[in-house]
């Protein structure tokens, strides 16, 4: 059985994605490509709800590269009218949409082996991994970071048991909430928060890439 799993045939796009992790090149905080991403969904139930859109933006060397971005809307087989007032994505509308399979394939091609960053990462990762499971594919291989957990590493956080929403961190860092509750808009906002957190950590002490992962608490939004 284990031998069959080891030699299971996967589609070419998954094999190409998998190859990105063969390199043993050591990366630093300034040379690593981070991909800050967000998903808009039909709801918060990771088992029954589905992804409506994925937005992402690349960041390398403390610089947000707006040319290195990703935005994809997915055809809605599952529709929840109650959440439209939050994300504004209609079942039909005029936005070009693709199948879940195509969106996931293009997302894998985009992220490669980058470190993935999101706010309350566990929810977004679960939604992506569930989509992969529906395609009979393994989970994402990328390392991940959560901006709420990173914020709690800073001296600016004085209540570690408190939950920090994206809105709350925007208020703390005085970041305008343009395009809030769109995947691309939230990804950009999260990238600004990520940069401010990194700047804080650097000011407080000398940090390395490994320090960002040290002591991460896996409990989060689900």
UniProtKB/TrEMBL annotation:
Occurrences of domain Exonuclease (ranges): 33-203
InterPro entries given in the database record: DnaQ (IPR006054), Ribonucl_H (IPR013520), RNaseH-like_sf (IPR012337), RNaseH_sf (IPR036397)
Highest taxon listed in the record's lineage: Bacteria
GO cellular component terms given for this protein: cytosol
Record GO terms (molecular function): 3'-5' exonuclease activity; DNA binding; DNA-directed DNA polymerase activity
Assigned keywords, A-Z: Exonuclease, Hydrolase, Nuclease
A Pfam family matched in the record: RNase_T
Entries under CDD domains matching the protein: DEDDh
GO biological processes: DNA replication proofreading
NCBIfam families (alphabetical): dnaq
Function text: DNA polymerase III is a complex, multichain enzyme responsible for most of the replicative synthesis in bacteria. The epsilon subunit contain the editing function and is a proofreading 3'-5' exonuclease.
Assembly mode: DNA polymerase III contains a core (composed of alpha, epsilon and theta chains) that associates with a tau subunit. This core dimerizes to form the POLIII' complex. PolIII' associates with the gamma complex (composed of gamma, delta, delta', psi and chi chains) and with the beta chain to form the complete DNA polymerase III complex.
Protein name per Swiss-Prot or TrEMBL: 3'-5' exonuclease
